[in-house]
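Hypothesis: this fold can be encoded by more than one sequence.
Test: take the structure tokens below, design a sequence, compare later.
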């Protein structure tokens, strides 16, 4: 087996905070396996929003057990690691590829793809792609939801901590975040892109039981007008990733956006609605349908139709408003399935373990 002790992760920030969050979590997960990790990111300021301890003007620094480097002309060329990961198709500088090719034993070169539940993922996961000019081969690594994929990022302690998160811990977290939940209220977290039909949702919620909607990162413009005694709204700052996990564990329903928060919502074991990052030609709708087919398969027809309608509307696939109050009423049933789903995923090995195992087998 190949010896792998160091890893470079390259991250180009495109989807606001999701790309940075995924790469930060991957770097932290790989350190759990004893690797010396370096995250090269082209937008330190964006990562600093998630990790305020990071100094956005320092090109190379230690954080959370690994090194974070500014990916720019100052740090474009360095000694390559044993394992090199390009996240989401970003391109390393040609000089860095040349340095890799010149090594006596070139590093394992991985392209970490976006998450998808589409059937073709299993057929393409792990396939090689030789460089057209250099003696290098890049391998495609697809995160996913079954054993034919690369799995999902999951820290070794995550599920045990979530199982131990009881009512007392929830109360303490909410108090620390300044969330005062009334006894009859359901708690919703909402993290969405501007295209989400937020005003429609908030208006519809007035017909149901009382809710408190919290918004990590602040209230979107204009939504404060929908606040009443039955639908309370509260802005939260951007939370540290571990605090965001615990907020997701605490809520009755989580609206999440992009890849990183969607994965964290699934580990939370609570009902969630995922707004996918919008892609050209409606590719995100195809990805949504592929995931929904898997996720709602155990539901009875009525509940499956209710949840699917909410997902379709939240992702702009239809202009027909779902029955939001009915969905809120069905949350206890959705929660049972969400816990089962998280348990099924948790029985599989995590992404960092699979990635490292794959890399060690490369000759």
């Amino acid at each position: 087996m190949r010896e792998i002790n160091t890893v470079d992760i390259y991250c180009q920030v495109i989807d606001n905070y999701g790309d940075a969050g995924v790469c930060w979590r991957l770097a932290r997960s790989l350190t759990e396996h004893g690797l010396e990790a370096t995250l090269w990111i082209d937008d330190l300021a964006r990562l600093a929003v998630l990790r305020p301890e990071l100094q956005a003007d320092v090109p190379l620094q230690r954080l959370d057990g690994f090194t974070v480097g500014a990916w720019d002309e100052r740090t474009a060329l360095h000694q390559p690691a044993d394992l090199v990961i390009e996240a989401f198709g970003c391109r390393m500088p040609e000089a860095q590829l040349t340095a890799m090719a010149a090594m006596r034993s070139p590093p394992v070169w991985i392209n970490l793809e976006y998450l998808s539940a589409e059937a073709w993922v299993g057929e393409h996961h792990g396939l090689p792609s030789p460089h057209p000019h250099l003696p290098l081969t890049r391998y495609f690594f697809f995160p996913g939801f079954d054993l034919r994929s690369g799995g999902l990022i999951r820290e070794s302690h995550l599920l045990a901590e979530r199982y131990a998160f009881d009512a007392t811990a929830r109360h303490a977290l909410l108090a620390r975040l300044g969330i005062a939940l009334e006894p009859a209220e359901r708690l919703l977290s909402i993290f969405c892109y501007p295209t989400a039909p937020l005003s429609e949702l908030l208006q519809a919620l007035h017909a149901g039981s009382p809710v408190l909607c919290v918004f990590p990162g602040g209230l979107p413009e204009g939504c404060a007008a929908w606040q009443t005694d039955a639908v309370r709204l509260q802005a939260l700052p951007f939370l540290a990733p571990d605090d965001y996990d615990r907020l997701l564990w605490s809520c009755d329903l989580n609206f999440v956006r992009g890849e990183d928060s969607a994965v964290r919502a699934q580990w939370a074991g609570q009902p969630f609605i995922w707004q996918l990052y919008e892609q050209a030609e409606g590719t995100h709708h195809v990805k949504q349908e592929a995931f929904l087919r898997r996720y709602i398969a155990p539901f009875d027809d009525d509940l499956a139709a209710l949840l699917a309608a909410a997902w379709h509307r939240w992702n702009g696939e239809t202009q027909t408003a779902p029955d939001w109050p009915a969905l809120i009423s069905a949350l206890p049933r959705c929660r049972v399935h969400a816990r089962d789903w998280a348990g099924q995923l948790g029985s599989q090995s995590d992404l960092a373990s699979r990635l490292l195992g794959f890399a060690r087998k490369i000759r």
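The radius of gyration is 21 Å. The chain has a mean pLDDT of 94.
Hypothesis status: open.
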